[in-house]
Write a structure and sequence with these properties.
single chain; 157 residues; alpha/beta; five-stranded mixed β-sheet; 8 helices; 5 strands
């Protein structure tokens, strides 16, 4: 699976609502229907951003083209971030059939699920699940193309 990742500067560089708007600008491009749907969940999305859930567990958009993973930068990383690094995507991930998944801690899960209920393309997933998926994907990506050396077999020679 091909994945595009972006890191968006957030608090204190941008407020959580402005961070969500920047993410929507990145994802929706010229898709007014998707933008309206994502604008409708701005409150809960901003709350999840301010809790920094999206720092280590990405917002994931799956659909046509490569999967998009959006992380947020916070604190000193957000202040020092070069906004020109927030590059536009080469495709419109909200075209056709798509799904956006927001990471959330167990304490906020019920409230977040209720808040996105009216958004048919949006779901909320447990933070532990999100972190595990991201870590597994990172491990697979980092090991791709690398030789694996069996040290035990070398010692036996």
């Amino acid at each position: 699976m091909t994945v595009n990742a972006r890191r968006i500067a957030s608090v204190p560089r941008r407020g959580p609502i402005d961070t969500w708007r920047a993410i929507c600008d990145l994802l929706c491009q010229d898709d007014d229907e998707a933008r309206a749907e994502l604008d409708g969940i701005a409150g809960i999305a901003s709350a999840l951003i301010v809790e920094e859930y999206t720092r280590d567990a990405p917002i994931i958009v799956s659909g046509v083209g490569p999967q998009v993973r959006v992380y947020t930068l916070h604190g000193d990383q957000a202040i020092e971030a070069d906004l020109s690094d927030e590059l536009a995507l080469s495709h419109a991930p909200t075209t056709g059939e798509w799904n956006l998944s927001l990471p959330c801690a167990d304490d906020d899960l019920d409230e977040a699920e209720e808040a996105v209920r009216q958004a048919p393309h949006v779901e909320v997933r447990q933070l532990d699940q999100a972190t595990a998926q991201a870590a597994m994907s990172a491990a697979v990506a980092s090991s791709a193309g690398r030789p694996v050396i069996d040290l035990t077999a070398l010692e036996q020679s």
